[in-house]
Amino acid sequence: MNIQFIKEVRETPINYNCDVLVAGGGTAGVVAAIAAARNGAKTILVDRYNFLGGTMLNGAGPLHSFFNLYKAFPGAEKIQVVRGLPSEIIDRLVAGGGSPGHLEQDKGGSYDSVITIIDWEIFKEVIFDMMEEAGVQVLLHTMVVDTIMEGSTIKGVIIEGKSGREAIIANVVIDTTGDADVAARAGADCIKMHESTSTGMPFGMCGVNMPQLIAYLEENNMVNQIVHADKGSKTDDIIRLGFELKKLPIFAEFMDKEGMWGPLGVSRYEGDYSYINSASLRAVDATDTVTLSRAEMKLRKQAMTLSRMLKQHIPGFEKAYVSWTPASIGVRYTRVVECEHDMSLDEIVNCCRFDDEVMLYGFHDCAPRIMIKDAGYYGIPYRAFLPIKIDGLLVAGRLITSTWDAHMSTRNTVSCMAQGQAVGTAAALCTKSNSKPRNIDINILRNTLIKDGVYLGD
Length: 458
Prior knowledge:
Blueprint: E1 14-23, H1 27-38, E2 43-46, H2 55-58, H3 84-95, E3 102-104, E4 114-116, H4 120-134, E5 137-139, E6 143-150, E7 153-161, E8 164-175, H5 181-186, E9 190-192, E10 198-200, E11 203-206, H6 210-219, E12 223-228, E13 238-243, H7 249-258, E14 264-266, E15 272-277, E16 281-282, H8 289-313, E17 321-324, E18 330-331, E19 335-337, H9 345-349, E20 357-361, E21 378-381, E22 393-395, H10 404-410, H11 413-433, H12 442-451
Parallel strand pairs: 1-2, 1-8, 2-5, 8-22
Antiparallel strand pairs: 3-4, 6-7, 7-8, 9-19, 10-16, 10-18, 11-15, 11-17, 12-13, 13-14, 14-15, 20-21
């Protein structure tokens, strides 16, 4: 194909200066921004949507996991591994009626012993409140389209929003875009990993008779995960529900052909099944516009077809209707940034610890097939967030960890939240000491994290 180019010469106004710029207000980014601001940095957070939370609200169901996998190991101690700012966010949600808190699984505890369910709309309010309290400047409806480089050091970014094209100058830039958009544009070495995993499109349905549904599923031995909790209903206490639709031939034929699974879902309020995760499409390069657009349409067709089949064939769904679909498909893996340390599965399952670790984590999304041994937890070193080639840049979230089976732990929501506190705090300390991220005093960073409530072991 003959590709033609146009040559552009632009003058872009520098409309913002800050200590720390966080690109991507998703699961890691929101925590990074608050952590940076609370530690004294003038902080700007940029996000493409009209809300903050990213995949935590737009693709994930329960948050996995603040705790270790103790239910898979009889007699093991129950430990809240992730604390600090992520835990404070949940406390704020509980106080505001946006979460029932941490709930133990009644069935499926060898996958995740404790899940944490949140109300997405209340989260949006709470996180905006926390941004305002911390003094974070939030720029919504805005995308990073280029970087400002001085040799191998990033000095800021170019953004495009409703005000047009603008520049932000920053002492430290944090890439929490998920797709490593900033790191890639800055020239960091990245690898594409989309071939190894799937994308999805969850959806929600209202008007579901949950007692009738659960009776049918249990009668047919289809339930594989369940959590009971008080929802303010006399008849409905099901808040987490996963079941095996493929036990029914009509669903197996449709789902196997499409590559679907589950479903696995959440019912936050009486009469709804507000999160249903089943639609799936493999090997989608979500950094390619045409590919991403086609995937959006295919996955939406899967989700809507499944909703009609549930209404037609599964008791409890007769009067149900689709009440929610995400703003974009759920993406697990695209670009991974080559950092000074790359977490391995061996390190994860064998509870490896590091002298420069800045967080701990104890969940793996492939449990019980892949489990962290003896209900333990592992550390992630600060080096894992430092791109090899680029100075002035930290990365966090699903854009670290280059092997699929290790990534299936580090990419999860609560891990990303903990990563956010680590890099946000580090960026603020860099500004205070006028140092680059790779030259930070790791002991000062660790002590600051501990002071701010992060658990780094006894």
